[in-house]
């Protein structure tokens, strides 16, 4: 059931994506946490949609996930809100190397 919810959430997020794309690239298992990818400009969507999408993904994780960031930047307030959610859920982060 959880895997189905993750798939539905990922499909919904992919469909709604206009700028930053949020996706689960590796699902949570007993052996490892989920890997969540945030790719593209952060905060170009209206009404904090990316924050709401990230919180929906974060809320269904049973273990602290690893969030991979691949972005050239964006709106600071949206990034701060995502950062606070990462802290709230105890997630780890990794940043893609500079291009």
Structural features, described:
With 99 residues, this protein is of the alpha/beta class. It has a single domain, classed as STAS domain (Transcription Regulator spoIIAA, 2-Layer Sandwich), CATH 3.30.750. Helices cover 39% and strands 20% of the residues. Helix 2 (49-59) packs parallel to helix 3 (76-88).
Q: Portion of residues in helices?
A: 25-40%
How many strands? Answer: 4
Helix/strand/pairing category: alpha/beta
Order of helices and strands: HEEHEHE
Question: Notable features of this structure?
Answer:
99 residues, Transcription Regulator spoIIAA, 4-stranded mixed beta sheet, 3 helices, 20% strand
Short description:
The chain is of the alpha/beta class. The protein is 39% helix and 20% strand. It is built from 3 helices and 4 strands, in the order αββαβαβ.
